[in-house]
């Protein structure tokens, strides 16, 4: 059997510093289901099972959609000898790192050996991405051990998220992901993208190796951060100590990180030694990439490929919304058995492709008002855009809304790349409170009285957070809270008369024990 299309071997997804755990990571739950498309979309949806079309014009159109990310134009002969080679053997042939042999390695080996079911699931899942990762590693001349790194980062769970918010198969932190051009916005998170995150992870590892000249130190920096490793090296240099990985004073998490990779390497090299087995992995792409040139609903794309929504999301985990924007995601990944059918069905599809589009909010408004303007229920708008209760949508935010029949243009590249959702508390307007300080008034006391933060009071009055106000000093506070007036006390008749006369004057100010207060309707 021969694939005559230009194909795209596949890939791996998401990682980065600060996500290693003292034990190999637990498996992440399945990705949450995407919101359903608006009702109109279901009326025009194609049949659940894609129809294989054989029209020559359709096949010709479809063939232009199949691309090979690493070997453009190359055909894959599934009967060729090299294709039948076991990919694990190819991985073993590329081992280059100096071996570690210590108690940390023994601990990790014992952990994996005691969990054969976990290892089987992890390696089976990893077999989907291993060919692509190994291709990228070999293209860069790197040790093949690096292709095993997602085993300890995420167990090859493409949508994994750590407690520190590192995301994806390669566990990238948000800032590091942005440093390596992994887009993160309301529509997609490229830290979960198989191809993009693999490229970024290997670029990052290559940079770290150039920085430290040692792969063990580069791996430690990938986990702990390069600045921390540089400080540990400098500390040893000042003390006249060696600066290799095993000699540095580093946290246990990072101390365990490289030994875990060594343990996985040992298991791949000789699984029988640990009573484990590895699934067979063929030496050819598991996935192809297929071009998309128009915005398309995720559910429709899955149907055209003949896949369940969950399976499609496993191949394309970077999508944050129920629509794929062609301007930001010009290709999808599919098992090669489904790629041709998808391309043909996509080329012949005549109905609507996207039932969602992007809308830039013209002014700050409530979700209820936004829902009315876009013709959807408030509950649906909140759900698809992940808007929590008691929040306003600020002007300039981008919302995903139903795409009307009159909308012809897809979402632009600029909006697809820069879209953001900015929220503000849906609270009563703040009032400007002017008062004069009493004898014992401090920033903290004023903050407690008006139920605001001391840092805010300090900022409004250009003083320190621990400052004490001088008696009579003018103070400004912005708040929606009005403190209770003190309970009235018995007063002498003359004093009562004076207060009544003062209250009758238009500009009078009520005097209290904590200074003079005037409340004006204003906002900061």
Automatic annotation (TrEMBL):
Pfam families: LysM, SLT
Superkingdom field: Bacteria
Limits of the LysM domain: 433-477
Keyword Methyltransferase (UniProt): no
Signal sequence, renumbered to the chain: 1-28
Keyword Cell wall biogenesis/degradation appears in the UniProt entry: no
Keywords: Signal
Bias (Pro residues): 26-40
Family that this chain belongs to: Belongs to the transglycosylase Slt family.
Protein name: Transglycosylase SLT domain-containing protein
Organism expressing this protein natively: Pelomonas caseinilytica
């Amino acid at each position: 059997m021969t694939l005559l299309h230009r194909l795209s071997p596949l890939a791996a997804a998401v990682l980065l510093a600060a996500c290693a755990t003292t034990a190999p990571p637990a498996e992440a739950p399945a990705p949450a289901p995407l919101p359903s498309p608006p009702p109109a979309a279901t009326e025009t949806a194609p049949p659940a099972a894609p129809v294989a079309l054989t029209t020559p014009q359709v096949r010709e159109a479809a063939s232009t959609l199949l691309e090979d990310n690493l070997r453009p134009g190359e055909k894959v002969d599934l009967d060729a000898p090299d294709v039948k080679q076991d990919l694990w053997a190819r991985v073993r042939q590329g081992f280059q790192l100096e071996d570690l042999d210590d108690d940390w390695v023994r601990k990790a080996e014992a952990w994996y050996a005691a969990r054969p079911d976990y290892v089987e699931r992890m390696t089976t899942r990893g077999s989907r991405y291993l060919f692509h990762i190994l291709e990228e590693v070999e293209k860069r001349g790197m040790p093949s051990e690096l292709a095993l790194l997602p085993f300890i980062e995420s167990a090859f769970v493409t949508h994994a998220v750590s407690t520190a918010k590192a995301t994806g198969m390669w566990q990238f932190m948000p800032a590091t992901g942005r440093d390596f051009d992994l887009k993160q916005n309301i529509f997609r998170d490229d830290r979960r993208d198989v191809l993009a995150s693999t490229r970024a992870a290997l670029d990052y590892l290559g940079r770290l190796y150039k920085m430290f000249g040692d792969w063990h130190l580069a791996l430690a920096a990938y986990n702990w951060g390069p600045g921390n490793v540089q400080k540990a090296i400098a500390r040893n240099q000042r003390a006249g100590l060696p600066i290799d990985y095993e000699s540095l004073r580093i946290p246990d998490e990072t101390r365990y990180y490289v030994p875990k990779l060594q343990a996985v390497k040992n298991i791949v090299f000789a699984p029988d030694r640990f009573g484990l087995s590895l699934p067979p992995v063929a030496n050819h792409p598991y996935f192809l990439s297929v071009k998309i040139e128009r915005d398309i609903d995720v559910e429709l794309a899955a149907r055209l490929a003949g896949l369940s929504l969950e399976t499609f999301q496993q191949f394309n985990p970077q999508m944050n919304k129920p629509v794929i924007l062609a301007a930001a995601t010009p290709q999808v990944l599919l098992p090669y058995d489904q790629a041709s059918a998808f391309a043909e069905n996509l080329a012949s599809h005549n109905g609507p492709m996207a039932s969602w589009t992007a809308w830039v909010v013209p002014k700050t408004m409530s979700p209820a008002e936004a829902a009315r303007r876009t013709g959807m229920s408030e509950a649906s708008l909140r759900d698809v855009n992940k808007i929590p209760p008691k929040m306003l949508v600020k002007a300039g935010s981008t919302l995903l809304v139903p795409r009307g029949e009159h909308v012809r243009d897809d979402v632009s590249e600029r909006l697809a790349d820069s879209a953001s959702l900015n929220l503000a508390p849906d609270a009563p307007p703040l009032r400007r409170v002017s008062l004069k300080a009493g004898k014992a008034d401090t920033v903290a006391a004023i903050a407690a009285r008006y139920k605001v933060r001391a840092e805010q009071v300090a900022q409004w009055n250009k003083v320190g957070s621990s400052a004490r106000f001088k008696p009579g000093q003018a103070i400004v506070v912005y708040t929606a809270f009005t403190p209770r007036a003190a309970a009235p006390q018995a007063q002498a008749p003359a004093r009562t008369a004076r207060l009544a006369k003062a209250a009758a004057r238009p500009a009078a100010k009520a005097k209290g024990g904590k200074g003079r207060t005037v409340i004006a309707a204003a906002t900061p």
